[in-house]
Structure formats: structure tokens, C-alpha cells
Write a structure and sequence with these properties.
alpha/beta; 6 helices; Rossmann fold; two-stranded antiparallel sheet
């Protein structure tokens, strides 16, 4: 995997905690932005913690102004939060990369406009963009959601691949999702 100078992971204290720990081996500096500072600190003592609710535009702006410009941002943002997505994309170093980790609903084959809407966060910016959609797993005729290890491994593989769109697990058949 490419080595990054400065990485910011948004939402990296939950299901992306393993990803955040792994990225410490591929970056000079890793920061995690999440609401709960105690949970961020539990991820790794080498990670810079930024306690902030990305739904609070003023707090997010202030938090982003306090850090060095990242060359990679990986964001797991619940809900639409277009202001947060755009603010994060605008804070990526020119020629850097913005990776959005998205829930399975964004990959619903019946709603292709959802992925297009998420990509609007980077319109007109001189950065690379990747969408990583978290699907599900089919096993023995049943389906289940991805576990945290599968999510972390999938996001790492997606970043390594540099593909504009990566699906972790599967989205088909859509009717089989858990």
C-alpha cells in the first residue's frame, strides 16, 4: 500500500478502529475524528484524537482548521450530511484522496442516483475520489452483514486498488440483503 503522510479517519473509533490501527503502519500521522474521545484513545495511543460531531458544521470547521492538511481522508458518515462531506473533501491536500465508506443502501441497484449524490462532495476539487460500498455476505443460502474485520480489510483493499468504486462483500441479489 502507498504510504501517506497525514491521514484523517472520520468515524474511526467504531467499526473502522481496526482499519485505523492498520493505517498507522502506512502513514506518518493518523488522526481519528469522532464524537467520543475515550473511544478514539482506545483505538491506539499513537493516533491523534479529534473529538467532534461532524453534524455540527462550526465544530467541524474548527477541528479541521486545527490539523495539518491530510493527503488522505477516509470518512464513514451516517446519513446524508452534505455539509460535512464537502467540508472534509475541501480539506484534503491537492492531489490527495477522499474516500467515502458508504452503507449498502448507496449501492442499491434500484437507486443509482445515491452514489452520484455522494460524489458531489468532491465536484470541482483537485483530489481523487473513491466510494467504498459495504455490502453483505451470502453463506449457506443465508445472508449476513459484514463483520468489522471484513470491513477493515475491504476498505484497505479498496484504497490499495485506487478504483473509483469498490464493493466490499456483495450487493446482489439485492433481495437477499439481511
Amino acid at each position: 500500500m502507498k504510504r501517506f503522510e497525514r491521514v484523517l479517519i472520520v468515524g474511526g473509533s467504531g467499526m473502522l478502529a481496526g482499519f485505523a490501527r492498520t493505517l498507522c503502519n502506512h502513514a506518518v500521522r493518523v488522526s481519528v475524528l469522532a464524537r467520543n474521545e475515550k473511544r478514539i484513545r482506545a483505538v491506539s495511543d499513537t493516533i491523534e484524537s479529534i473529538a467532534c460531531d461532524y453534524n455540527d458544521g462550526v465544530a467541524l470547521s474548527e477541528a479541521l482548521s486545527q490539523i495539518e492538511t491530510p493527503d488522505l481522508i477516509v470518512a464513514w458518515i451516517h446519513g446524508r450530511a452534505p455539509h460535512a462531506r464537502r467540508a472534509l473533501a475541501e480539506s484534503v491536500l491537492a492531489e490527495g484522496r477522499f474516500v467515502q465508506v458508504l452503507g449498502s443502501a448507496h449501492g442499491d441497484p434500484g437507486h443509482p442516483e445515491r452514489l452520484a449524490e455522494m460524489a458531489k462532495a468532491v465536484e470541482g476539487l483537485p483530489i481523487d475520489y473513491q466510494a467504498v460500498v459495504l455490502g453483505f455476505v451470502l453463506e449457506g443460502g443465508k445472508s449476513r452483514w459484514l463483520n468489522n474485520t471484513e470491513i477493515c480489510d475491504g476498505v484497505l483493499a479498496a484504497i490499495d486498488s485506487e478504483r473509483a468504486l469498490s464493493i466490499v462483500g456483495t450487493l446482489e441479489p439485492w433481495s437477499a440483503k439481511p
